[in-house]
Design goal:
By secondary structure, the chain is of the alpha+beta class. The protein is built from 7 helices and 15 strands.
């Protein structure tokens, strides 16, 4: 695990003055991380170890329980202007590499309460207020190691049945302002078939584990190309796509972007890290919204549980169930949970493991 000492010291010494108040804090993140539904602990098998004694030359085979659970590896925040981020304590990360960048969608937009599927916003000019339907939306994204690992690690340290994370708290794994050219232009993903095939590698409405290959309806946007712009007029749906794109980058071993790999690529004796995240399944990662609303459950984007039942106060033709999830300032933040599998070390040599 990488040391995050440098960034913790930097966090304590750098003074910053965000234009807008911080919406979530490290304390909030740690509190929301104690979610047993997101941790989803389960026993999965048995590990076998070879234990030898030096005093009495003999060896024996020891066993330990193999378990699997999710860890809160990272905070993924989506924002329009560097420094004006949901997680205010880490605003200096985007400011440090901003170079005067900003999102192309105006920061002073305010979504109407009944926008629903229309996703319209209002923009005020010097003469009058008029509606503007933005077709192309742009955002910046940060992926930073989550302090939510603190309470989860502390809780599991009291038992023998917890798996350590490969991620480091407060470590910046991806900062889109630093990855300027690859986040702005799709050149690095031109060789990906999903860049050109509609419905392939799409974020959208589906059940967890369903519609793996193609998504024909309820589409939010395509994962490829992994850039900071999208043809979408709904800030919530667009932000889920940007979050998925950034997570896809940091969990790919050899992505053509400027980033740090999230966690560790290789397994160790009795410890197995997750693979690359999937937009259609929670098998390699799932999401917990922290801003604009805090939730205690985890899911993939577009899962039915993320949509509220119809509100009788809003016309059914305008209601799509995401009203409570839409942010008024256009910024969003999620915690990314990833699954780890491990077993307690019972000997010097790991032999093998079996699954239940």
């Amino acid at each position: 695990m990488k040391s995050s000492t440098f960034f913790i010291m930097l966090l304590g010494t750098i003074s910053y003055s965000p234009i807008v108040p911080a919406q979530i804090t490290s304390a909030d993140i740690m509190t929301e991380s104690l979610s047993f539904t997101c941790i989803d602990w389960k026993a999965t098998g048995v590990c076998f170890w070879l234990k030898c004694s030096v005093v009495l030359p003999s060896c024996s085979v020891e066993t330990s329980l193999k378990v699997k659970h999710y860890n809160p590896d990272a905070i993924v925040q989506i924002y329009q202007t560097p420094g004006e981020v949901p997680w205010g304590e880490m605003s200096f990360v985007s400011e440090m590499f901003s170079l005067g960048q900003s999102g192309s969608t105006p920061t002073n937009t305010k979504q109407s309460s009944g926008q629903g599927l229309l996703g319209r916003s209002k923009q005020v000019n010097s003469n009058k207020s008029k509606k503007q339907n933005s077709k192309i939306m742009s955002r910046h994204v940060d992926v930073i190691g989550s302090p939510g690992l603190i309470p989860v690690t502390e809780w599991f340290s009291r038992t023998e049945y917890g798996c350590g994370s490969g991620a480091s708290m407060y470590w910046p794994y991806f900062v889109s302002t630093l990855d300027y050219f690859s986040w702005r232009f799709p050149y690095t993903d031109f060789l990906r078939l999903a860049t050109f095939v509609p419905g392939m590698r799409e974020v959208g409405e589906r059940n967890d584990g369903g519609n793996e290959n193609f998504l024909f309806i309820g589409r939010f946007g395509n994962v490829f190309p992994r850039i900071g712009s999208l043809m979408q007029n709904d800030t919530y749906k667009a932000s889920t796509v940007f979050a998925q794109r950034a997570a896809d980058i940091v969990t790919e071993p050899q992505a053509m972007h400027i980033y740090n790999f999230l966690g560790e690529k290789d397994s160790k004796d009795g410890w197995w890290p997750p693979g690359q995240i999937q937009e259609w399944s929670s098998a390699q990662g799932k999401w917990q919204m922290l801003y604009p609303m805090k939730e205690s459950t985890c899911h993939i984007f577009g899962e039915p549980s993320t949509r509220a039942v119809n509100n009788t106060d809003v016309g059914s033709h305008l209601y799509d169930g995401y009203q409570k999830r839409r942010s008024q300032d256009g910024n969003y933040a999620w915690q990314l949970w990833r699954p780890y599998e491990c077993c307690e070390k019972k000997g010097k040599l790991f032999l093998y493991s079996i699954a239940f």
